[in-house]
């Protein structure tokens, strides 16, 4: 008789797709690299310093928290690395190096781990941290002119600043004095990883190709912003106004990398459309009527808080059921 | 018309190891082991006694229940035991053990018959007596499916999708016995009083399509419907919706939307039973997987212990980590090679380290890949949350009872969660509570 010496018995299915959480996070990291390259080109090597400090501290906080609470370490899944990179991308390149450390501490411990770790946080950790870091409003809104030489480690002082295109659009209600191409390539003031729409789009295409994300949220989000700004322009050229609005601020970074954060976005298809449209509406609302020229972070955070309810009411129609009328008996 | 369903997964087909290998007949084993329950429905009672001498094809167990199928001796010889033995489902079941006398003495009931003039009821009677069950996997008695569908069914569908990875038995049957399949389809059409049947076949079996066409000849009443290779294309409800555009309502049967689905080899078995009087005694079984030395498609007598199949394929080239009866998506893990091939067996797979290893689950990251994969349009993300926390009411509301356990969500899950296992537990608990 042939003996089965080491077989295991489990419930079917017995095979798995090769992608796991770690490989997905690594894909996200790869997709974020073009933006880092452009950020480094525009703002100089200090962009790399900030990102490195942010990543190391994010991973450290995750490791430290789990060590302290004697939980199994999850730093291997690379999700903390993604949080670190995203937070850095949301900071001005002139920020002091302690800022990303405080930010990632807030993101990883308060927003992520205290809610139960990966998959359990209801807000995007990097965005929540960014909102928290506005406790230092001056640091968070110092936009250095592109291609300014900055020290690698010391906090820069007295830098020449440039208004972001969105600020110009908001406060003078005119088109900014940069070209659309300059905006697409990120030759503008802004956070270190958000300025280059093209680099972020390239990353987005990679994520689509690798099936890490679906187009639903980014298309709904960017589409809503585009439609609203085209039909309700504040300048005299709707098309240009729309182009600047779509390329400006953190929209690309937000729509492609932040609003698609798994934990804090809906899982249903309809829900993802609703979520994206909601983000777009709130973004334009803040940009037009708020006191702040940018609205991406807060719109995503607001929509993060609605995910449970969206998921609950956007369940797909199950196979073999008909859409029931209001008041009709459920099958 | 769309030629695929919504959702699903694309596991690597892995069929090349056996798709080009002709079916080989496996020599009958010295001892065959026949559980009295190899089908969905009531268990049979043995109608032979210890020490009886039985003929090949003689009925040895039967039941008076409607949903059941008799069992036949698959060798001639002596009954040497009627006792509880291990069944591939992991439990012990009453089993009739026959010592083969190698005479292959045919039972007198097995003879060719002129069936052209037989009525539908007579044909159904023959199918019932032949113990034929669905060859696709669930092993539902074929005569019951026919009887409960007559008068309702206007769409006869033949399932040649074979969407499970590794398995090539239906593919080989189409290539080598297309005439029997077409013969069976013709008989089924007559019973249902239909003048049309549709064969759904995944396009990864291109070479079988011309063979089928040739077997069909100039007839216009049997159509071939190409399907996109995707898992679970061969799931009954998905196949019906692709071919007819009708969705089987939750809790209903295919007949309720006028459809009946039969596996290709079920058709072959119907043909053999009706034209030659041969009961269900054999299965074509794909033996494959990374631990198998020389993968093959074997023509095996039901009741043959798995060990014989492994020996016939050159034994294990590596110590297997997992042995499956059925495909990798829905097959049942085995822990002993004593268990026999039963009526629902279409493959035996053995995996060595890489594929068979146990994978530790991590936390759900809410990526929604399971939602995209579910062919039943469920939301496995939340179902899992509720089933793990034993919120059975929510599980029901989220449609756990509609889950067909195809495993597409589980396959896609990057957190390596055991979703289907969790849903099975929830279903069990809900059904138990209902019985109380």
CA-based gyration radius of chain B: 21 Å
The gross shape of chain A turns out to be: globular
Q: Give the strand line-up of the largest sheet of chain B.
A: 1-14-13-17-15-16
What low-confidence regions of chain A span 5 or more consecutive residues with pLDDT below 50? Answer: none
Mean pLDDT of chain A: 92
Write the layout of secondary structure elements.
The complex is a heterodimer of chains A (331) and B (436).
Chain A: H1 21-43, H2 46-68, H3 79-89, H4 98-112, H5 125-133, H6 137-140, H7 165-172, H8 180-184, H9 197-209, H10 216-231, H11 238-247, H12 251-258, H13 269-289, H14 296-304, H15 307-313
Chain B: E1 24-25, E2 31-35, E3 45-46, E4 53-54, E5 59-62, E6 71-72, E7 77-86, E8 92-100, H1 120-129, H2 142-149, E9 155-160, H3 169-192, E10 197-202, H4 208-216, E11 222-227, H5 236-244, E12 259-263, H6 264-276, E13 282-288, E14 296-301, H7 306-312, E15 322-325, E16 332-334, E17 347-351, H8 353-356, H9 369-373, H10 380-388, H11 392-397, H12 408-412, H13 419-435
Parallel strand pairs in B: 1-14, 9-10, 9-12, 10-11, 13-17
Antiparallel strand pairs in B: 2-8, 3-5, 4-7, 5-6, 7-8, 13-14, 15-16, 15-17
Helix pairs in contact in B: 1-2, 1-3, 3-4, 3-6, 10-13
Give a structural overview:
The complex is a heterodimer of chains A (331) and B (436). Chain A is mainly alpha-helical and 331 residues long. Chain A has helices at 21-43, 46-68, 79-89, 98-112, 125-133, 137-140, 165-172, 180-184, 197-209, 216-231, 238-247, 251-258, 269-289, 296-304, 307-313. In chain A, helix 1 packs antiparallel against helix 9 (197-209), helix 2 (46-68) packs across helix 3 (79-89) and helix 10 runs antiparallel to helix 12 (251-258). The longest helix of chain A has 23 residues, at 21-43. Chain B contains 13 helices and 17 strands. In chain B, the strands form four sheets. Chain B has a six-stranded mixed β-sheet, with helices on both faces. In chain B, helix 1 packs antiparallel against helix 2 (142-149) and helix 1 runs antiparallel to helix 3. The termini of chain B are far apart. The chains are: A mainly alpha (331), B alpha/beta (436). At the A-B interface, helix 1 of A face helix 7, strand 15, strand 16, helix 9 and helix 12 of B.
């Amino acid at each position: 008789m042939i003996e089965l010496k080491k077989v295991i018995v489990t419930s079917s299915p017995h095979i798995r797709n090769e992608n796991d959480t770690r490989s997905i996070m690594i894909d996200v990291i790869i997709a974020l690299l073009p933006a880092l390259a452009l950020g480094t080109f525009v703002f100089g090597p200090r962009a790399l310093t900030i990102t490195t400090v942010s990543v190391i501290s994010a991973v450290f906080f995750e490791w430290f928290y789990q060590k302290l609470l004697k939980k199994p370490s999850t730093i291997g899944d690379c999700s903390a690395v993604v949080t670190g990179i995203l937070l850095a991308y949301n900071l001005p390149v002139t920020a002091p190096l302690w800022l990303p450390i405080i930010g990632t501490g807030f993101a990883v411990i308060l927003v992520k781990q205290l809610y139960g770790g990966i998959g359990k946080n209801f807000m995007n950790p990097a965005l929540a941290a960014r909102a928290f870091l506005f406790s230092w409003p001056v640091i968070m809104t110092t936009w250095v002119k592109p291609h300014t030489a900055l020290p690698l480690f010391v906090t820069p002082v007295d830098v020449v600043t440039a208004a972001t295109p969105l600020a110009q659009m908001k406060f003078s209600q005119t088109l900014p004095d940069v070209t659309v191409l300059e905006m697409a390539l990120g030759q503008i003031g802004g956070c270190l990883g958000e300025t280059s729409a093209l680099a972020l789009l390239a990353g987005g295409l990679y994520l689509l190709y690798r099936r890490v994300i679906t187009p639903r949220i980014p298309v709904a989000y960017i589409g809503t912003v585009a439609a609203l700004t085209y039909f309700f322009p504040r300048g005299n050229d709707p098309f240009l106004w729309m182009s600047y609005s779509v390329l400006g601020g953190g929209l690309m970074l937000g729509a492609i990398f932040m609003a698609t954060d798994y934990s804090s976005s809906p899982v249903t298809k309809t829900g993802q459309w609703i979520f994206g449209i909601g983000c777009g509406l709130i973004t334009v609302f803040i940009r037009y009527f708020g006191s702040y020229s940018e609205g991406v972070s807060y719109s995503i955070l607001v929509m993060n808080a609605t995910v449970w309810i969206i998921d609950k009411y956007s369940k797909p129609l199950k196979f073999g059921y008909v859409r029931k009328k209001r008041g009709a008996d459920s099958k | 018309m769309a030629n695929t369903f919504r959702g699903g997964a694309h596991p690597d087909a892995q069929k090349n190891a056996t798709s080009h290998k002709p079916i080989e007949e496996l020599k009958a084993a010295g001892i065959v082991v026949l559980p009295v329950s190899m089908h969905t429905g009531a268990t049979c009672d043995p109608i032979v006694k210890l020490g009886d001498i039985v003929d090949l094809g003689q009925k040895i167990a039967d039941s008076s229940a409607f949903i059941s199928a008799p069992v036949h001796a698959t060798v001639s010889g002596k009954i040497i035991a009627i006792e509880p033995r291990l069944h591939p489902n992991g439990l012990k079941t009453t089993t009739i053990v026959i010592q083969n006398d190698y005479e292959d003495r045919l039972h007198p009931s097995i003879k060719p018959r002129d069936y052209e003039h037989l009525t539908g009821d007579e044909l159904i009677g023959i199918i019932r007596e032949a113990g034929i069950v669905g060859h696709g996997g669930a092993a539902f008695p074929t005569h019951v499916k026919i009887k409960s569908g007559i008068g309702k069914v206007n769409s006869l569908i033949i399932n040649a999708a074979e969407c499970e990875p590794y398995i090539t038995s239906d593919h080989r049957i189409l290539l080598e016995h297309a005439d029997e399949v077409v013969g069976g389809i013709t008989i089924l059409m007559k019973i249902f009083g239909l003048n049309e049947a549709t064969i759904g076949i995944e396009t990864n079996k291109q070479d079988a399509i011309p063979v089928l066409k040739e077997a069909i000849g100039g007839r216009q009443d049997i159509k071939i419907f190409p399907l996109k290779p995707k898992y679970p294309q061969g799931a009954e409800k998905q196949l019906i919706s692709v071919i007819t555009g009708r969705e089987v309502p939750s809790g209903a049967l295919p007949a309720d939307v006028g459809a009946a689905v039969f596996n290709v080899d079920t058709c072959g078995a119907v043909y053999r039973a009706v034209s030659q009087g041969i009961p269900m005694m054999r299965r074509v079984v794909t033996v494959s997987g990374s631990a198998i030395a020389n993968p093959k498609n074997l023509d095996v007598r039901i009741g043959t212990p798995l060990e014989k199949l492994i020996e016939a394929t050159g034994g294990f080239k590596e110590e297997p980590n997992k042995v499956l009866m059925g495909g990798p998506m829905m097959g049942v893990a085995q822990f002993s090679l004593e268990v026999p091939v039963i009526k629902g067996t279409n493959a035996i797979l053995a995996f060595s380290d890489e594929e068979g290893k146990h994978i530790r689950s991590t936390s759900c990251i809410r990526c929604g890949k399971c939602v995209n994969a579910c062919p039943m349009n469920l939301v496995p993300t939340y179902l899992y949350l509720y089933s793990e926390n034993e919120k059975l009411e929510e599980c029901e509301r989220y449609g756990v009872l509609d889950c067909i356990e195809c495993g597409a969500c589980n396959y896609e899950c990057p957190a390596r969660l055991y979703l289907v296992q969790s849903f099975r537990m929830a279903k069990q608990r809900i059904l138990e509570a209902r019985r109380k």
